[in-house]
Amino acid sequence: MSERPPFLEVLGERVILGDGGMGSEIYGRGIFINRCYDELNISSPKLVQAIHGDFVQAGSVLVETNTYGASRPKLAAHGLEDSLEEILRSGVTLAREVGGPKIWVAGSIGPLGPAAKEAGLAEGEQDAAYREVVVTLADAGADLIFLDTFTSIHDMQRAIRAAKAASDLPVVASFSFHRGFVMNSHDFMVQPEDVSLVAETSGADVIGANCGDGPHTTLEVVEMLGKAGDLPVAAMPNVGGPALIEGRSVYLSSPEYMAEYSRRFVQKGARLIGGCCGVTPQQIREVRSFLSSIQPRRISVDVKLPQVEGSVDAKPVAERSAWGAKLDNTFQVSVELDPPRGLDPARSLESAKFLRDAGIDAVNIADGPRAMARMNPTSLAVLVKQATGMETIIHYCCRDRNVLAMQMDLIGAHCLGLRNLMLITGDPPKMGNFPDATAVFDVDAIGLVDFANKLNHGLDLSGKPVGKGEGTDFVIGVGCNPGALDVALEVDRLRRKIEAGAEFVFSQPVYDVARLEKFLDMSKGIPRIPFFVGILPLASLKNAEFLTREVPGMEVPKPILDRLRAAKSKDEQREVGIRVATECLEAAVAFEDRVRGTYIFPPFGKYEPIVQVLKDAGVRK
Predict the structure, then answer these.
(1) Using CA atoms, how far apart are residues 388 and 385, in angstroms rounded to an integer?
(2) pTM value?
(3) Could you tell me which CATH number the domain at 316-616 has?
């Protein structure tokens, strides 16, 4: 039996990484297409296990069995129909033996397709053919049923109903979409909304898009499926066809290409990620690197602070720092200060002095934003305090350090007099200028908040006293994204951060006040902490399009993009960006019972627009 919790339960909490193309891997390892690939479970089990093993080693936690074509009508073409049960059971066993009890084994079932017609099967006989496969896979120990690469709505509906009637296993129903949603084997158009409706009403637990024309089409489909119904969405494309670039056919199927599209799938709401034909273990490894940045490994540290011997009471927030003293009674402004890329901090320090003189309450210093190697934020924070006396908030991310290094860094920061933390998960290295750097991600932001909170109570990360009746004095901040596609999940993560010890929250930049209002309304039921609305003045239309297309969690609404497009010059676009930022800040300030300040990002390191926005919004003179 699997040691993992139920598949659907985890899918509701986290993105799950599947595997890639079994058939293409078999072909790539020397087995010609005239063979029955499913029968290799019996005749070449080591080959099949080697492929499963490569995907598991690459990071797959869901593995599909090598049974896509294993149904009685399809095996009859090879004279193997009597081997059906052995092929199916071997398929489950091979996947389980390689992955062990900690992976999900998905029983792969392909459509009967033309084989049913050639065999002259009546509708009831087709139902029975699907049920026979489902029953055997379930009995062999599969964790779920994966209906793979269907191109007929009617056939998919038949398979879903048969699977639900024959077993209580979760069912993933995955359709193969092509450009314009015209199927290769049909002369009519199939809309994602239609597929979603049929899947949901037939009883499927997950709706997906796989194979097809590759990542580009799948991205469009994922968004449409997410809007069409309530089922979780799976995205498992093949590598896609060639692109015509300067008259040359180029296959855009590098590992980085697949990982980038996986990021976009998750942004659009996909919960199950993987690949189909042509997607290799190397590509899955790159996808895993990205997924690690949004859902790190979780280290269980079950420490109930009041019951731990040696723990101390944390100081009241107002006594820990000047920033903490004003959190609940003064509208505060914090501005992000870019750390230098090189050795000279002079420009950053001059910017800090400019912000101090402009009445800014604190600067927050990013920790390798977008995985770009810059000066350590702790070092710059010390220099800023020495040069300006300003309050500093240091970002600290989970990407680059294991838990041991985290404890050492945080204790060191406290001893240097730094008190305000912004704890974040961090961007994956592939986004930055050292793409081969190893991402650590021992914990996510929730776990890091828990660690910092324990230090405030005099406990180290293992729950043991860190000193003699001493604790750190950190004021703990976190981030949130009011514009997240899954607002309920974002609100739940904020709740968990607050329960772990968060004491204030900075939001991602807000451009749609209606989304902010929705987020604040949905979070009314969780404990309140001071909320700082994120503001980022847009520098240009190109800047807005880049943020929407390339930055995780960012999306500039279409009406604002249209306003930028209507501007006749870059200067006018810049003015539009400032007006939009001012409007958003004015609207956010109106939520005075919830919004306690603002967190402003400088556009391209330029701080003058920030002062103008604050003045125009009436926040600072």
Answers:
(1) 5
(2) 0.62
(3) 3.20.20.220
